[in-house]
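Q: I'm teaching a short session on how sequence maps to structure, and I want students to see two examples side by side rather than one. Could you give me a first protein with its sequence written out and its structure tokens following it? Keep the formatting plain so it prints cleanly on a handout.
A: Of course. Example one:
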Amino acid sequence: MKIFEKLWHGADYNYEQWLDSPDILAEDFRLMRLTHSNVMSVGIFAWAMLEPLEGQYTFDWLDQLMDSLAANGLSAILATPSAAPPAWLSQKYPETRRVSELGIRQPHRRRQNFCYASPIYREKIVALNTRLAERYQHHPALVLWHVSNEYGATQCHCELCYHGFQAWLQQRYGDLDSLNQAWWSTFWSHRYTDWSQIEPVDPSMHSLMLDWQRFISDQALDFFLAESAPLRQITPDIPITTNFMQPDVGLNYWHFAKHIDVACWDSYPRWHQSDDLQTAMRTAFYHDLHRSYKKGLPFLLMESTPSVTNWQGISRLKKPGMHKLSSLQAVAHGANSVQYFQWRQSRGGEEKFHGAVVSHLASENTRVFQDVQAVGRLLEKLTPLTATTVQASVAIIYDFENEWALNHAQIPRSLAKNYRETCQQHYSHFWQQGLAVDILNTEADFTGYRLVIAPMLYMLAPGLAERIEAYVTAGGTFVTTYLSGLVNESDLCFLKGYPPPLRRTLGLYSEELDTLADHQFGQIVPSAENPLQLHGVYEFYHYAELVHPEHAQVLATYDSEFYAGYPVLTANTHGSGQAYYIAARTESRFLADFYTHLTKHIGLENPLCTRLPDGLSIQLRSSVNQRFAFIMNFTDQTIPLEIGEGWQDAVTGLPSPSSIIVPPYDVLIVGQQR
């Protein structure tokens, strides 16, 4: 793909905010050259400037911007402006505004306050997008379409959305009898006799609310497809993306990923507020997730802050070195860009104090500007990275719909279910040891992975258990945990012991679940002569399942509570592979020891060094001919590392010593011919 021929460096540029200051606009392009920027995201919230009155379009300023970008050797990521409708549209067509759960039509305010189902809204944005595509289809600056901005799952309870939901349900279930059975709606006399009775306002109906979440996500995707249709038709050679966020927004990005050409996301870690190592691990998890959406391709870091945010409650300045380190962390995990929100700080509005490359001081001599300048200069020297990708042998299943269902579930301990945090806890070991991980959903192909891990796989969709069994039978290693296999895709509980679809693969069944208060902990002891050579005593907390092995080997047992002696870690040989079950929520030390021995057992190791010192993270990007290792120090201490012979400094090309020193908050990049 042409857009991956170099590493991108740039920012969101709100050119239209400065049209009455031509001196500032001219200065911007001089400063962009100084920062070695090569791309700008433009037009993201420009609807009111592109169509100030209904049907009256003003493209002169955008023409000037696009021409100036091209003249200065910069490319344009051109956005469609649907995320922020103009006031005239909201006033003239009130049906375009969302309706609250209480039936109140929302006023024109903030952004993204529009109804995905509104025919008027769709008509107006498609008309504008068509004109954008027609006008700029051959412009030399245009390299990528940025469709809307940060789609969300904000609910609309208007009649259009309710009718759409009811039609969606009819398509999914066919008839009301099937829906009532799938939702178990005889509970509390909630049985429906007409589609019009179904309104998504009853949190006691978990299946209803789960399907409502699915519908909202599908509705947002349908809107995306509608507004991107003219772009596909008129500019088929220009790739399309839309910027994702952390999964909190409630959309199933896996479904979106099928319809974009490159994945991108907006990353805003909270550095220096707590343990930076934990912040780095969580950020790495999200980078790997966004890389995994389009497996085999790089992703784009579409937004990050070069300084601080203004919306996190607390946002600290980046310590010296952290800007380069955090930017290169994205590249290490597969990004082919480092881009910022925003280029120049706004004078007014909600984000006037959000960090930017060019601050209100408007000087090239600021610390932040010079940090950005250094990153831009470095990215230019790393062009060979564009021929590489991240190649993972380990996969962790983190599934959005599983998370939605689990969030609704009122299990005996509904506090701190922590599904995502648990997935990250399992991920943490591999991040610390420099083993690449893909983050998958339950629809993914598991072929080619040596190890697949599925923590808290509460919901099993049709066919998933069979695909897991086939993976293990063919020689794969599978790990899952407590709270797995409890319900089907409609949130109906399985019968005959959990998890029946995986019972043969795991070689066990679960009978009961104990839950512990926050101050309560129990103990785990490994079995004598267990094949993973685990030893010592470990703690468990929050959740403890009582399982009965049928064919599985017991590797560790509870050593406290009335269920002392019950299995807590089992292994079952099935076909040519093995399936492991962890029956309790354990301390991280247990998972670290378990995965250390397990990865050694199946032959996975870091090619750079046998064991990383605490505080360092290593990520590799590889091609057929070469590989690059990013050695990252997320602490304020200098850390030595032995990397062996045959590596070169990726920037200078000079041989790298086998004993290196990684300074605090720094990243070293070494390369090697394969």
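Q: Perfect. Now a second example for contrast.
A: Example two:
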Amino acid sequence: MSNVKRSFPVQGMGCAACVARVEGALKGAPGVCDASVSLASNSALVEFDNAVTTPEALRKAVQDAGYDLLTEGSEDEAEADAEAAREASFRQLKQDTILAAALAALVMLIGMGFKDFPLKGFLLWALATPVVFWCGRRFFKAGFSAVRHGSANMDTLVALSVSISYLFSVFNLLFPGVWTSRGLQPHLYFESSTMIVAFILLGRLLEERAKHSTTAAVRGLMGLQAQGAEARPGELVLIKPGQRIGVDGVVADGASYVDESTLTGEPMPVVKQKGDRVYAGTFNQNGALNVVAEKVGGDTVLSAIIRMVRDAQGSKAPIQHLVDKIAAVFVPVIIGISILTLLAWIFLAPEDGVTLGLLAMVAVLVIACPCSLGLATPTAIIAGIGKAASQGILIKDAESLQVASRVDAIVMDKTGTLTEGKPSVVESVWDPSLALEADGVARDLRDVLFSLEKQSDHPLAESVCASLRGCSQLPVKDFEALLGRGICGTVEGTRYYVGNLDLLQTVMPEGVSISPLLEESLQLWMDQGYMVTLLFDAKRLYAVLALSDNLRDSAVQAVKVLQEHELEVHMLTGDNEVSARRTALETGIRHVQAHVLPEDKVRYVAQLQAEGKKVAMVGDGINDSAALAQADLGIAMGSGSDIAIHAAQVTVVSSDLGKIRQLIRLSRKTVSVIRENLFWAFFYNLAAVPIAAGVLYPFTGWLLNPMIAAACMALSSICVVTNSLRLRK
């Protein structure tokens, strides 16, 4: 048995019923071990025995269910084809939505805002026809395709409702005498048919825009593959300064600083020299490296991250819309009720049974139109997302709001999320004996430090220079970068060194002249996890500077507020244990893990999920992207990488951690409004359908006119929209 796990793009899905049907078709195919279908990414993650079945056979099984599976070419090629098809479909959907909204508004204006005039009905017919048959063609195609394959979905109900109201209006327009001869007034319902199409298309447009954004994370990660990506294992690859590394391998020659934040999330570049390992997707800064490739293409750590993002997205539960679930039962039930209504009138009222029964049948179908059902969620989502945007919180889809309302555990990355991601000098101590020497010596040594750091391109050098504003730049001779240890140069005839403790011990292996104050500060800051920079010459240590990645201004208060609202806060970091514990102590976070890599973050989130928690992951780096995708809710800081932002469902533009609590509070309010809307929509249908069928006629002699039914349908939509607008306050 040779199992293969592969992701395939799926075309034609529109609701949860579609997901269930595609998943069932795949799981029922011979040779398939498991299948997970995602509506969010329009993809199917299938594990199958390639000795028993083939991608072409899987495609045939999905096609027999009424959908399509893209299997040609490699996984990346199939995804590229699907992406091109999605972009073309989205552009067409946008055009259809704009056209439908414009024409529907015109139909409503003419139909309800003007008194009758010659050919008014024919004008409405002419305006409604392109809305129904062109803008709404996708509903007819998908709805009746579902019927052909023995199922029903939301498209089926939309298509049926639109076609009934449209065709009945055309019949009344062309043959009014059928009703006037019986003393009845023929009414037109073009407004109903056009508004249904316009509103449902708007909801689809928002949904497709959200689904499209999920693929941007994988596209961004794939863009990190660069120089040497086409190499073979064992080959020597030259990585020039300023290039992104494209292979996993070992440095054979050369030395440089390499930015590994794509893997570790830490801002500090790492020294790479002969014998050290480098990884695809990392960035070579200032020296040429000859690298012996060990892993290339799909075997690299970067490719593993890409697969983790894909798998995490594909493993999420499909979007479960209550409306779509009920639609499978609601559609045949409404059709059945309308047919029973017609038959009951024919048998119970022999004289006018056909006429009254047909009117009642149409009233049932019109009043049961899914317009309010279709608006219940989108309008609340539009209002909620709009309110969030005004507060600097960008939410990509409706599911994210629903998930945020149930979050009870929040996992935060440290660097760039809880902290600013930019090290700065927090304290410095200079040898106190300098003040007893010649005037100006202390100031001159600060100039020396400033002048040396100005020559360096190391990130810490910029932070040190920023702390020495106002110092003068002196001439530096024989400047040298001592890789991994610091820098040195000659200023006014003296050789000075700036670097770490290793460099100090190298320059003065037999000991150094150091004041007790400097020695005490050096030990204290190292114990507390600070980054330490030293200034010295061959005889004496002059200064100790402590650098730290400062907490965001909002971090402490944000963590406190989240914990006060019974939200469990966790912190993950690739940094050392001492630094992690110091940050945890400052913020009050009790759950901490240090020295974690991207795959460790994914496992940590998955473990919390296995314990039954709804997890939100907050991060800012490429290394957080897989964990952001694995979490129930991914929240990216606006100052973070594009990859993290694409992988997350929520972006906090200002990087203010206090916005997380605002997001959760708003999401809970929005979900509450959605539930109210759905309750109203379903209650309305349960109450209105029997009345439309004529249950009150034997007692009151009153039969609901289809025009009134259409007005009631419109009123139900107005109630739903008005309720949703409360979120804007």
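Q: What should students look for in example two?
A: Point them to this: Confidence is low (pLDDT under 50) at residues 312-321. Also worth mentioning: The first strand starts at residue 3 and ends at 11.
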